[in-house]
Amino acid sequence: MTETLLEIKGLRKSFGALKATDDVNLDVQAGEIHALIGPNGAGKSTLIGQIAGGLKPDEGQIRFLNRDVIPLSVAKRARMGLGRSFQISSLAMEVSALKNVILAVQAREGSSFKFWKQVRSDQGLMDEAMIQLERVGLADSARTVTSELSHGQRRQLEVACALALKPKLLLLDEPMAGLGAGGSQRLTEFLESLKAEVGILLIEHDMDAVFQLADRISVLVYGRVIETGTVDQIRQSAQVREAYLGE
Ligand code: ADP
Ligand code: MG
User: Which part of the chain is the ABC transporter domain (predicted)?
Assistant: First the structure.
């Protein structure tokens, strides 16, 4: 028996006349990496926004750990274990990498991200943050000011911040974007190593990474899931090749 982490039914969201999310059904099981692929503008980020809570659906259901989360705030969902990879823009650039992770740990415990000056000097907190930095390979840069980290290191830092929230489901929106081949490969291996502890809904254009990581793939086109299947099923699908892979 697998545990259903996330279950989405009949989800709809329009911007004016544009149906950005059009009757989407999708689920993520514990221990699963479910990849969401589709062309630019297909509605992938809009879907993630509704799951994380920044965007309110027009219709449909989002159940996380068997609970209706639509009425819940972003912060409440995060505390339930719905983790969204931090956008680089949400990192505090003027403080160290370590401090950013400490802020994430504090956010899990309920305090706001904005009050970075109120970082507690607490050894337990610091140790926990260091562990996350070590896991993503950033321990050597713990004391580096975030604005001085490379693009790739900031992506690693985002993942460390997301993990600090101890999520049960991680929502990742194009984590490989802007990483070189080596960086993508390292992140791919790292995400693989996370599978036992956290389910992942992975939006990614890097098809090598998707084919390597995904247990299932859903293909989103014009707001609709046109197909969900295993890597082999999706690779062989004539409909997907035509609509998305352009073959
Ligand atoms: P993807 O992440 O798959 O590239 P998005 O979810 O970002 O696609 O966008 C889906 C569609 O919704 C696009 O046509 C985009 O222009 C539109 N869209 C996204 N957010 C908004 C918004 N806040 N207001 C109006 N249109 C939006
Ligand atoms: Mg997007």
Answer: 6-247
* Model confidence, pTM: 0.88
Cα dihedral 101/105/106/112 (nearest 10): 70
Residue nearest to ligand 1 atom 20, measured at CA: 46
Q: Give the phi and the psi of residue 231 in degrees, each rounded to 5.
A: -55, -45
Token output for 196: 């036992």
Rounded CA-CA distance 196/2 in Å is 12
The CATH architecture one would assign to domain 1-81+167-247 is 3-Layer(aba) Sandwich (3.40)
* Mutation probe of ligand 1 site: the residue of 18, 50, 220, 244 with most atoms within 8 A of C-beta: 18
What token pair was written down for 82? 């719905």
Residue range 209-247, pLDDT digits in tens: 999 999 999 999 999 999 999 999 999 888 888 777 665
Quote the tokens at residue 12: 């709809």
Q: Is 22 helix (H, G, I), strand (E, B) or coil?
A: strand
| Contact between residue 227 and residue 238 where contact means Cβ atoms under 8 Å apart | no
Assigned token pair, 201:
């809904």
pLDDT in tens, 21-31: 999 999 999 99
- Rounded to two decimals, the ipTM of the complex is 0.98
The CATH 3.40.50.300 domain(s) of the chain lie at 1-81+167-247
Ligand 1 pocket at CB < 6 A: 15, 18, 20, 38, 40-46
